[in-house]
Records
---
Amino acid sequence: MITPIIDLHCHSTISDGLFSPEDLVRYAHSKNVQVLALTDHDDIDGLERAKGIANSLGIIFINGVEISVTWRKRTLHIVGLNFNSDDKGLNDSLKAIREGRDSRAEKIAHGLGMAGIMGSLEGARSYSKDGAVGRIHFAQYLTKKGHAKDVKAVFKKFLTPGKPGYVEHLWADLESAVSWITKAGGDAVIAHPGRYDMGSKLYPQLMEDFRGLGGVGIEVLSGSQDPSQTNYFANLANEFGLLASCGSDFHGPGISFRQMGQIQKLPQGCEPIWNRWPVVKDLN
Ligand code: AMP
Ligand code: MN
Ligand code: MN
Ligand code: MN
C-alpha cells in the first residue's frame, strides 16, 4: 500500500503565507498532496475558500488553525484539526487573539522605531493586507528596505528575544486553546515541538499537561524542526499516549524551511492522528 501524502500544517495570506487559500491548495495539488489542512495563525477565514478548491481537485480537506499560546512563560503553537469552523466559541476566541496581535504590532513598531527604523507598522501592514500583522510581515518589509539580506536574517537581527523589534506578549493559555478546539469538535496537536528547545525535563512535563487538558496529538514530523528529533518525539508521543501528526509548516517558496508535501513516513509504532478521521483512515 502506498502511503498517502498528508500535510496537516501550512499557511496562506489569511495569516503569514504567500499564497491565497485557493492558490495554496492548487500548489498542494501540484505537489501531489492528498490530504491537506490549512492552519493559519489564529484565523480560520481561509477554510471555506480552501475547501471549495480542494473538493474540486479531489484533495481531502481538513479544517485547521494554529493558535499561539503561553505556557510557563514560553510561546508555543497548538494546531487544531478537524473542528467545526462555525463554532462560535472558537471564532470569538480567535478574534480576541487577533486583536491582541494588533497591539503587539504597535509595540514591535515602537521598538524598531527606537532602533531608527521608522514606518514599519504601515510597512508590515502592506504585507499582511487584511489579516493580522505577524513578525513575518515586519521581516518582509525590513528585507525590502535593505535592513538585512532576507527574512531569516531579519528575524535574527531584529525580531527575536533581546532584539529591538521583539516584544513579550501574553497569548492565550494552553488550557483555553485546547478547550476551544476540543469544544468545536476538533483535535488539539502540539505544533513543531522541536522548535521549543525545552530540554529533557520540560518536554515530558508539557506532554503530561497537554494530555491532561485533553490534547490528543503532537507533530512528530514537521518541516520546521530538525529530522534528527523525529525519534525523540515519536517516543514521547507513545509514552504519553499522544497521536502523531505531520506537516510541512509551508509558508511559501523562499520563506519556508521545507517544501510542501515532502514529509517522510511516520516512524513505526506511531499511531497517526488521521486514524481518528474515517474519511482519511480509509485511504490507507
Ligand atoms: P508571530 O506569530 O507573529 O510571532 O510570527 C511567528 C512566525 O514567524 C512563524 O510562524 C514563522 O512563520 C515565522 N518565523 C519565526 N521564526 C522565524 C525565522 N527564524 N525565520 C523565518 N521565519 C520565522
Ligand atoms: Mn508563520
Ligand atoms: Mn508555528
Ligand atoms: Mn505554522
Note: The pocket of manganese (II) ion (ligand 3) is lined by residues 66, 77, 191-192 (CB under 6 Å).
---
Amino acid sequence: MSRTGFYPGSFDPVTYGHLDIITRAARLFDRLVVAVGINHAKPGLLTVEERLKVLEAALAPIRERTECDIQLAKYTCLTVDAARRAGAIAIVRGLRDGADFSYEVRMAHTNAALNSEIETIFLAASPSARMISSSLIRQIAEMGGDIGQFVPMEAAEAVRAALARERGETD
Ligand code: ADP
C-alpha cells in the first residue's frame, strides 16, 4: 500500500526549518504532497507562484536523496479537504515550541472533527532550525539583515525582489 503525507503551510518563504521537516517526512511516506495554502485575506509577501517556484528549486536536492515521490500543490479549500483529495492518510506539521504546540493541537482537533480519517502527525523541529520562522525571516530582510543562513538562495533572492517591489523600486 502506498502512503501519502500532506504537508501544508504558507511557505512565505520556505525556510531550512520547512526543508528539514520535508526531508524527515519523506522517510515516512511513499509520496509527500507539499501544499501552499492560499488565504486571500492574507496575501503575504511572495505571490503563491513565487512560493511554488522557490519551493520547486529548494526541493530539487531533497528529491535526489529520497525514494519518496515529493509533489508540490496549492489549495484554497479546507486543509483536510485538500489532504483528502491528495489521497493523504496524514497531515504533517512541525512543532518548534509551546506556542506552536497549543495552536497546532487545536488545529489537529478541529481537523479531526472535520475528517476523523486523516491523522495529524507532528515532527519536532530540529534543534538547529527551531528558531527559524518565515515571519522572522521577512522582518530581518525588511530591516536589511542577511537571511542567507536561514533560507535557500532562491528564497533569499525572491524575498529581496518582493521587498524591492513593495518599496516601489524597479529590480
Ligand atoms: P502556517 O501559516 O500554516 O503556519 P508556515 O509556513 O509558517 O505555515 O508553517 C508550516 C508548518 O511548518 C507549520 O506546522 C509550522 O509549525 C512548521 N514550521 C515552520 N517553521 C519551522 C521550523 N523552523 N522547524 C520546524 N517546523 C517548522
Note: The chain has a mean pLDDT of 96.
